[in-house]
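Aim 2 progress update. The chain analyzed this quarter is reproduced below.
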Amino acid sequence: TVSELPAHRLDIGDLFSNSSDSKDKPNLDVLTQHILLEGRLTEQAARRTIETGKNF
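Predicted structure tokens:
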């Protein structure tokens, strides 16, 4: 059985507990589950997640 794809793209508010804090880390459980379901991110959420990862 094939699972239904997520209907929406995750946005910054879905991934970060404090979307206005540039040092806040993304919720990896939410991100992982969404990506495993072949979900997509908004461009803004993808860029912020990548920028956050680059700073580690």
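The chain has a mean pLDDT of 85. The helical segments are 12-15, 28-36, 43-54. These observations will guide the mutagenesis experiments scheduled for the next reporting period.
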